[in-house]
Amino acid sequence: MILAVVPAGIAVAAARSGRYGLAAGLVTGLAALAPGRLILDLQFLVNGSKTIRPELYLPDRLLDRSGVGIGFWLLIVGHLLTLAAGIVAARVVLERNEIAGGDDKRRWRLIIPLLAVVAAVGLLMTPVLSDDPFLLARSAFEGPGLALAGYLLLAGALPVAAVLGVFAGSDGVARGTLGGIVAAVLAVAVPTLVAGFAVPGLEVSTGAYLAVVPMVLVLVLTPLATPQQTQTERTDLAGEARVPGLTIWRALTGFLALLTGVAAAIGAYAPQLGNSTDSPARLQLLVAAILVVLPTPLLFSRRTAPIARGILAVLWAGVVLAGTAVLSTAITASEATGLGGLGGAISYHLGAGAVFTAIALGLAGLTGLAAVITGVVERDDTGTEGARSAALIPAGITAVLAIAAFGTPVFTAQDYAPPGLWSDFDTPSWGLLAALLVVLGTLGLSVRSRPGAAAAGLVGAALLLALRVAEIPLVSILFYAAKPGAGFWLGLAATASAVITAVIAAAGAKK
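RE: above sequence
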């Protein structure tokens, strides 16, 4: 209760004293993580016996389900009110940032988003170690799907909110936003940390330390990392919109891409289960990791940065394409053995490969988001004037071929039903869908973008299509009597069409 009341009290006190930026930032930071906390707590309604929340629910007998009381509904109402308050506070945040200006050059501040990434990883790990047979200690990926969705939302929103807080123009908004996300994370992680020390049969886990310690460091660094503008500076800079520097956004995009590549590479080669089970798609995930990392050095050259950024805005989906295929090995095993069920002992434990693959999926999404934001900042810096790509017809042909390539199997094999978009929809199908939507979005934007930007995106689309075709040498070799399917030939045609479209766009850029 203290962890919930104290941030609310600070926000009220700040508003009453006229520090509206601090109050609005604090509420916005809390609201940014409220959706994840809301979904995480909904697990009590679905099946509280599968939760690992000893501060709220500590079973003392075997149950297959559990009921909820008035406290649960008050908890849900609290999350909903936090979301509503965050929507209102966001307007104040925008107003405060609009009257702030300048571009802070303290690059060391990027350590705060880095600490947020570490804390996000901690949230996904086992929150507490348990010798209690009625409280199974599991990571987010070993637990029920609803809790996993909540933890993933928390882990994904945390670094994004940290970046927005660090680069907020208003000192009050920056401090409030960072304080809000710290309060939200501590509200989730501190109770299990305390339970590990205080409850018999429980011990503190590494995940709890990784979630709490980085957030404490963020709280300590916040007064040093925020703009710290004087009242005179705020008045002089009134009316100027403040956008984080393009160099910082490029550096953040490259940093996230490197983290994605490292996590994906570990996920590819580490065992998916405790018995060293490997996934047939691990080589494809390794190639996807390499493709994401390769353009990152180009982000640090002013001349090549727009090209690398455009390619990364597409290639992140390659990690999702291959990662969902790799992760399906562990998910299929969990469904087959009844993970978390009460019919017998759990016969396996997820390996590091499954954990790091899931982390890579989240980091890939953040990489794509950072690349898109960087593109917006680039456009603001260079303006919107200029010719547009003339590759409308080739882009349309590529789009049709891409739909066919992702919708049909690349290879067929004896006693193997490949997951697809139209039939046998399974975990890898989500990767196929994500990759297809990214390719179609890139093709759609290419006809409205300037030739250089269009060509960079189309190169990324061609590489993503090539990664789909590469299932033949990378994946099918592990299947008996595998042979190319329709998706292989359609994928080759789509890749060639994407390359031709990119060449046409690049020719327009030279003109």
